[in-house]
Every structure is written in C-alpha cells, then in structure tokens.
Amino acid sequence: MINDDLEVPELLTFQEIRDQYVKLGQQNKEKIEDYQQLIQKLEDIYQNFHKIRWQHLKGQKLVENLSAYKDFYALKSIHYFGAHLQLLKTGFIEASYSALRSAFEAITKTYLFIVQPELNAIQLEYDFKEDISQEQSRNIEKQMKIKGYLGNKFISETIYSKENAKKLRELYKYLCYKTHPNFKGMGNITQFHSTTFEDSFMLGLGLAISTVELLGEIYNQYFTEDIKSQIKESFSIGQNHLGCYYLLKPDLIQTNLVFKTFEEFQIYLKTEKTSTKI
C-alpha cells in the first residue's frame, strides 16, 4: 500500500545537477589539479618506458602478441582516466563511473596476461575468430566459455586469493551498478550528492595509482632513475588524498613486482633493478 505521507524529493533538472557538481569541482580545485597531475605523470611514465624500450628493440618493427596486448591495455587505461577527469570537471559524475569500470577491466586483464601469458593467445584467437574456419571458431568459443570469457569472476578466482577475490568482485559489482541502466545504480541521478563527487574522485585516484604500479610491472626491465622519480612522485600524490592503496596486483601468484606496503615500494625504488622472469 502506498504511503500518501511519503515525502518525494524535488527532482532537479539535468543542468541544475551539473551546475552544482561543476561548482563542487571548483571548490575542490586542489583535488582536481592533483588528479590531473597524476594522469600527466602516468602519460610521462608510459612514454618514457617506451622510449627506452624502442632503443632496446633496435629498429625491430614487430613485437610479440603478449607485449602488444599489454601495451594496448595500459594505453587504454590512461585514456580512460583522462575521460574520467573531464567528466568530473564538467559535472557528469554518474557517467564518470563508466570510464572507471573500463580502466578496472583493462588493469585486471593485463595482470591476468602477465601471470598466465598462455591465456593471451586464446584471447587473440577469440578476437580474430571471424578470420578462421567455423570449426576452429567453435573450438575457441568453447575454450573461452569454459574460462568465463576471461571475465572478472574468472580473473579474480585465478590470480587473487579467496579474500581479495571477494573484495575485487565487490568493487567491480559496485562499478557495474553505477554504470549499467538499473535501479540500484541510479539513486543519485535526480539529486545532488556531494559524496558522489568524492566517491568517484577517490576511486579514480586509486585506480590510477594501480596503473602506475602496473606500468612498473609491464616494463620492469626498463627502469631508469628518472622513471623511478616519476613513480615516487605519483605515489606521493595518491598518498596525500588516499592515505593507503588498494593496488590491484595479484596476490595469489608471485609476479615481478610485489609490494605489500607503500614503504616496500619506496625501498624497491632505491635499490638497483634486477630483471626477473615469471
């Protein structure tokens, strides 16, 4: 039975909501500037790693598929953060979660390919299955189906401990709620909530910091003092706002770079880099 005494909140217009979020962003100018600086650091780290990498390749025109995939996903992640920043600044807070979800997927799938590179070959075949025979295509489809199409559930259960896999799925579920057209994720669309800006900002900052570490994982053999300095500066920006990190590095399987605390990461940056293989 409908309660006639239920107070219905006033519905704001699209522009009224955006204007308030834009104003809120202006009031949080320091946060926006720090986030913008962090994204710039990400771009610089990525480009500097690539300069050194191409010097090592010495004119080699092609790279192997796994390296190409990791390059692609890392680059896409950085673009997603740029889009997220612009959406925050212009007041499209709810839409900004879509960019974060895409960044989250790119980060976790890259870690999957780092830990289990053989799955990259299956992904590649699946992506180009229209170019092979129907029988081969059906076999690839079957393999991908068994592996949950390398989706979030499969990734979380494959390279994360049970405890962290649960946390990872909860975070992903939250991003999906905020992204998909469903009732659970639309609660803040018709109202202004200052906490929504803070939530999206903090999630973006945390995922961007995770991407900094991911770049160090992908290009671990190309560290220089300049890149180490850029990474430390990036973590300092995150530490000012977050105080802690929820890095998305796998904890179930040993990878090249594993830091349980920010202090461990700082110690690593002060030591001479030695290349190791998974």
Write out key terms for the chains shown:
disordered C terminus, 11 helices, single chain
Indicate the topology.
Elements: H1 14-27, H2 29-57, H3 65-90, H4 93-115, H5 118-127, H6 134-146, H7 152-159, H8 162-179, H9 194-218, H10 225-242, H11 262-270
Summarize the main sheet.
Answer: none
Structural class: mainly alpha
One letter per element, helices H and strands E, the order comes to HHHHHHHHHHH
> What percent of residues adopt helix (DSSP H or I)?
55-70%
Q: How many independent structural domains?
A: 1
Q: How is the quaternary structure best described?
A: single chain
Count of extended strands: 0
Overall pLDDT score: 77
> What percentage of amino acids are in beta strands?
under 5%
> Which term fits the overall shape?
globular
The N- and C-terminal alpha carbons lie at a distance of 61 Å
Which residues form runs of ≥5 with pLDDT under 50?
255-262, 268-278
Radius of gyration: 21 Å
The number of helical segments is 11
